[in-house]
Design brief:
The structure is a single chain. Strand 18 and strand 19 form a beta hairpin. The chain is 49% helix and 20% strand. It has a five-stranded mixed sheet, with helices on both faces. Helix 9 packs across helix 10, helix 14 runs antiparallel to helix 15 and helix 25 packs antiparallel against helix 27. The chain folds into four domains: 103 residues, Phage tail protein beta-alpha-beta fold (3-Layer(bab) Sandwich), CATH 3.55.50.60; 197 residues, no CATH class; 84 residues, Phage tail protein beta-alpha-beta fold (3-Layer(bab) Sandwich); 149 residues, no CATH class. It contains 28 helices and 20 strands. The protein is an alpha+beta fold and 594 residues long. The protein is globular.
Length: 594
């Protein structure tokens, strides 16, 4: 059983790693030569985010023109690209050109039984262009972020040297910088980062790194303790009442982590964060956010701290902070366009997509737009969580700019056709997972009343961006328990690294940590770090780990790590089974009663 599991796991990742290779560049026949009159027929088609393979299959069936996607049946990187299409009476050749342009693929022509056939695919040059854009974008963004953090660190150091009068002058105009200039926390953080090169490097790079406090030089240990004490003092001065005395009195057991859990840029608060410092044990921590002093969110929080320390009630400060943060959100959604949205009369026409602000998805927005403008609409599509789209009447140009602002889709209007292309298409393509595997997990979930350990193991070993942006945006997979794999991905990655005999030992009895390879131990440490910063610094010794399974209708898989005999377990628990079908069962029961 264990050997079969590991062979299946290897085959799964062999498919992921080899099936996206681009075919060599080749000279191809153009679809615009005009030598196939069938391409002049007009088609009408509507699709809300289907794969291009399914779209071409549908249109082939309705037109009699054979069209396929990809170099072969395994070319999921082309076949699984998703599109939104709403067209009426458009020439087939024009639709083919629009799709290839938006997806940045091209058509080649062949023959079958004397009839022309068409294939949409990506050649080596197009693949290299995609990879080049991805690399250039990452380099540019990383450079901007590094420079911002370097400059902010320099500013914090300078703020600590201001005179009392100069610092007080910031109180009304720049409250977050005032807090940094007058509170010990700002000076202590700057002192720590400037005098500990590894921590400074992690902060500037935006990467995660952890250190046991006892492994630091005495001077830096004192600095870490001052950071914790000054942060505790600051939070208490603005109304916090948590008791952190045990944490502060046990510094010999603490861990300090720079950017624990990594940094993301998914919302306004996280976009305002330069980094974060976590000090504590697995059960209790100080999580200290380091906001960009120039960010609107930083100013709003600084203002709240100043008002609380000045005696304003917590209720009043809470209301003021909420109002300030709402203003930040509204300011971020103001449509300020450098595009020409007035010269074309069609762009000046007013329309209402939604009556009020609505949390929705790109397919719904573009369907509304197509219906209310009667224009053809074609777009690429990368599924994501629903986002807030402002309601009310606006010109078409303003609505198009709102789509760009909210969903990141650049737009073009040519005649009676609106085209949309995700501005980060080259980045989001590597987030995706083969549709055949998504369907495989869905089928497995239906058969087994939830995903089993084999399935969770496969999901947990996808790349983080695939898990976060594809698996966790699929409500059906989440319903079958994919979230368990997402939350426990690190322990699943460790388990996947074990040899069959090690996995058998862990299941049948216990696996000694001392027998692990360096790579396996590193993977286990990464898993332990998710249970608390202090666990990340444990040293390999006589610890052991077990895997157990219990239950029938609801199956629990438990990975238990023991620091030693008699020590409490660090538990990683994954559940599967009918627990994920309770809502469906309830619906079926209600239907039966009726």
């Amino acid at each position: 059983m264990i050997l079969r599991r590991f062979l299946l796991f290897a085959a799964f990742f062999a498919l992921l790693s080899t099936s996206c290779l681009a075919a060599p560049s080749a000279d191809t026949d153009s679809i615009t030569k005009g030598d196939d009159p069938r391409l002049d027929q007009k088609v009408s088609y509507n699709a809300d985010g289907v794969t291009v393979a399914n779209m071409l299959s549908d249109i082939s069936a309705s037109t009699g023109v054979s069209m396929t996607a990809g170099t072969d049946k395994d070319d999921w990187c082309v076949q699984d690209r998703k599109v939104i299409v709403h067209v009426t009476d458009m020439k087939l050749v024009d639709l083919m050109q629009e799709v290839s342009s938006i997806l940045r693929f091209h058509w080649s022509k062949g023959t079958d039984n004397g009839k022309a056939t068409y294939r949409l695919w990506q050649d080596k040059q197009e693949r290299q262009e995609e990879e080049s854009l991805r690399t250039a974008d990452e380099d540019a963004q990383q450079k901007r972020d590094r420079e911002k953090r370097e400059n902010a660190l320099s500013d914090i150091v300078n703020l600590g040297s201001l005179s009392t009068n100069d610092a007080n002058n910031l109180k009304a105009t720049d409250p977050w910088r005032y807090v940094l200039a007058t509170e010990p926390l700002g000076r202590d953080v700057a002192d720590f980062l400037n005098n500990f090169s590894e921590a400074r490097s992690a902060f500037v790079q935006g990467s995660e790194v952890s250190f046991p406090v006892t492994a630091l030089p005495p001077q830096l240990q004192n600095t870490v303790q001052r950071i914790a004490e000054s942060y505790d003092s600051l939070t208490k001065s603005i109304g916090a009442n948590e008791d952190h005395s045990d944490l502060l009195n046990n510094f010999n057991k603490l861990q300090i982590t720079i950017n624990r859990g990594g940094l993301n840029r998914s919302d306004l608060v996280s976009k305002s964060l330069l980094g974060k410092i976590t000090i504590g044990t697995g059960l209790e921590t100080f999580d200290i956010p380091l906001f960009d002093p120039s960010s609107p969110m930083g100013r709003a929080l600084g203002k709240a701290i100043v008002n609380l320390k000045g005696g304003m009630s917590r209720d009043d400060v809470g209301k003021q902070l909420q109002a300030d943060m709402n203003s930040v959100v509204q300011a971020s959604s103001v449509i300020s366009s450098s595009r020409d949205i007035s010269s074309d009369p069609a762009l000046r026409v007013k329309l209402k997509l939604f009556d009020t602000t609505t949390t929705t998805t790109l397919p719904i927005v573009l369907k509304e737009m197509a219906q209310k403008t009667r224009l053809n609409v074609i777009s690429d599509y990368f599924p994501s969580a629903p986002l807030a789209m402002q309601g009310g009447e606006k010109t078409l140009g303003e609505q198009l700019e709102a789509v760009t602002l909210v969903f990141g889709s650049n737009w073009t209007k040519a005649g009676d056709t609106l085209r949309f292309s995700d501005s980060e298409w080259f980045k989001k393509r590597i987030w995706e997972v083969p549709q055949v595997w998504v369907q495989y997990w869905l089928d497995r979930g239906k058969i087994n009343n939830g995903l089993l350990l084999d399935d969770l193991l496969q999901i947990g070993n996808l790349r983080d961006e695939q898990i976060d942006h594809t698996i966790m945006t699929n409500p059906n997979l989440i319903g079958f328990g994919a979230g368990e794999a997402a939350r426990n991905r690190q322990i699943l990655r460790f388990y996947a690294m074990l040899k069959p005999d090690q996995a058998k030992m862990m299941t049948g009895g216990h696996l000694m940590v001392s027998s692990l390879s360096d790579a396996q131990w590193t993977a286990l440490q990464a898993a332990l770090a998710t249970k608390g910063a202090a666990y990340a610094g444990v040293q390999r010794g006589n610890q052991f780990i077990q895997l157990s399974q219990s239950g029938s209708d609801v199956i629990d898989y438990k990975f238990d790590y023991y620091a030693g005999e008699g020590e409490p377990a660090v538990e990683f628990k994954l559940s599967s089974g009918i627990v994920y079908n309770i809502a469906d069962d309830a619906k079926a029961s209600d239907k039966a009663k009726k």
